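User: Design a sequence. Structure:
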């Protein structure tokens, strides 16, 4: 559901929005919706908390340091 809202912005911001909207061939409202979505994505870091420790306790993947050493075995410096 889309809801309408009223926002008071300084004239300079309105002029900038209108110019930008003309450049990208979209509406002022579409730019504001895009900005809100970008702000939400930037501030919502819950995915980090949810994913923390996801691989903890896995026994089928081996030790990552051992893997790195094995892969780099041929890269020793003489």
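Assistant: Done.
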């Amino acid at each position: 559901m889309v809801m309408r809202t009223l926002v008071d912005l300084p004239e300079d911001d309105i002029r900038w929005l209108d110019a930008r909207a003309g450049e990208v061939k979209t509406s002022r409202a579409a730019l504001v919706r895009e900005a809100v979505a970008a702000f939400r994505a930037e501030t919502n870091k819950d995915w980090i908390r949810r994913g923390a420790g996801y691989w903890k306790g896995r026994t089928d993947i081996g030790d990552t340091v051992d893997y790195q050493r094995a892969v780099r075995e041929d890269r020793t410096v003489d």
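Residues 28-43 form the longest helix (16 residues). Residues 48 and 66 are 26 Å apart (CA to CA).
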